[in-house]
Amino acid sequence: MNTLIIVLVMTIVILVGVIVFLLIQKSAGAKFFLKAKQEAQEILKQAKEEAEKLKKEASLEAKEKFISLKTDFERQTRHQQRKLNEMERRLLRKEENLERKYQLLERKERDFSHKERALYQKEKRLQEKENEYQQKLNQVIEELERVAHFTQEEAKRELQKRIEDEARLEAVQTLRQIEEETKEKSQALAREIISQAIQRTAAEHVVETTVSIVDLPSDDMKGRIIGREGRNIRALELATGVDIIVDDTPEAVILSSFDPIRREMARMAIEKLVVDGRIHPARIEEVVEAVKEELEQKIKQEGESVILELQIQDLHPELVKLLGKLKYRTSYGQNVLQHSKEVAYLAAIMAKEIGVDEKVALRAGLLHDIGKAVDREVEGTHTELSVQLARKYGESEAVVQAIASHHRDVDFPSVEAVLVQAADTLSAARPGARRELLETYIKRLEKLEEIAKSFEGVAKAFALQAGREIRIIVESQKISDERAALTAKDVAQRIKKELDYPGQIKVTVIREMRAVEYAR
To answer: How many domains would you assign to the chain?
Structure first.
């Protein structure tokens, strides 16, 4: 601060000197010089007074700032002291609580030690009494064995055998009663639900084969299809992968192939060529390529038509395309797309009747055989492929599990899964829905009778109603009425494990007692 004042004073002095010098130069008079000197002294005096005043003000300001800082420091010190006091009080309270808990634990430990000693004494007394009781019991058993001439093990075995026989008899009687009551109620309800579902679907069934017939406008067209030295027909077979049979059938050719899509492609190509009239190898290749694109679009439209008909939302486009392919896939002569639609309808109707998730049953029923659209291209059973496709394209786990169990490959995870399996069986087993090879049919009947005859006490067995019922005649001397019921159950279980069959097989066990006398 002093340095500032000195610099200020010197600046003022220099200014005054300059002014005086100028005044002297201008006036050059002694009087004027004297006056200027006096003014300079006056200015110097005022400057000193101003500097003193500034010095005092700076000193006062410094004191005030010091007082303010001192006040802030004391306030913060008091605040910190209060915090420390509060922490000290809390620590004291915690220490007191810990001391009380420690004393309480010591008391509980002493009580526990007293109780443990008391329990030990009681256990010791009980052990002594048990030993005494065992000695007396052994004495009684020895006396009973001596009187009854039976050892303890022999008596146990005899008693156990009698109890088992009585329990088995009572169990069989109770089981028969429960089964009869359950059958009466459940069959009536099941018949009502299934009949309603079947009546509401009422689908048509046409058994399809592995051949198609293409009508021609005239027999002359056969020669044009064959072409010079068979070039046209070879080009057609090579492009479509279908065997084309030209025989004596008037105004028609026969297309043979196990792949329905190729067969349909060949049929459409031949019809277009017949209408166009230009039939030669180059034109055949053009038409087949065009038909392929047209068939792809037709497959997509078929899938979309099914989705629209069933009012299913959010189905992946790839699944829609695969559904369209099922129109050209058959199983035992039954169209798989028609079968899938029917299963979806039946499952959804039955789900609605019994109050479970209708949407899950509908989607699972429609997609349960979706794997058949790719089973010629990918390895695996159609069930495994259906599960993989449904999971890949975002179907819910409930739908996937219902698909996985529709052939009982896994246990049923839900009621909807049971309904899908039942709907699949109904659709496949309906008269006229499927055709079966004679050899397979005969083998199934023989296997049915073989399983039934393998049981002890069975005299004869007959497969009836195209293998949907097996009647078993048992020997009355070897099989009782109760045992006959158990035999029927055992045969049914064995058939379920060893045979593949559509629908269900009824097992009937017949036991009769005949008394014959002659009057002479």
So the answer is: 2
How is residue 203 written in tokens?
């689908």
Burial class (CB in 10 A: 0-12, 13-18, 19+), 34: exposed
Predicted TM-score (pTM) of this structure:
0.47
- Expressed in percent and rounded to 5, the helix, strand and coil fractions of the chain are 75, 5, 20
Q: What is the mean pLDDT of residues 443-452?
A: 85
Domain boundary among the residues 143, 167, 202 is at 143
Nearest Cα residue to 413 out of 396, 425, 438: 396
Q: Copy the structure tokens of residue 231.
A: 């070039």
Looking at the predicted structure, is the pLDDT value of residue 243 above 70?
yes
Last residue of a domain, one of 143, 158, 187: 143
Domain hosting 26: range is: 2-143
Most confident segment among 54-63, 228-237, 489-498: 489-498
Question: In which band, very low, low, confident or very high, does the pLDDT at 440 lie, cut at 50, 70 and 90?
Answer: low
Given a contact cutoff of 8 angstroms between Cβ atoms, the answer to whether 369 and 386 are in contact is yes
Residue 316 lies in a domain: no
SS3 of residue 365 by DSSP: helix
On whether residue 319 sits in a domain, the answer given is no
Residue found under tokens 């786990």:
397
Alpha helices in 326-475 (DSSP H): 336-354, 358-367, 382-392, 397-404, 415-429, 438-453
What number is the average pLDDT over the span 311-337? 82
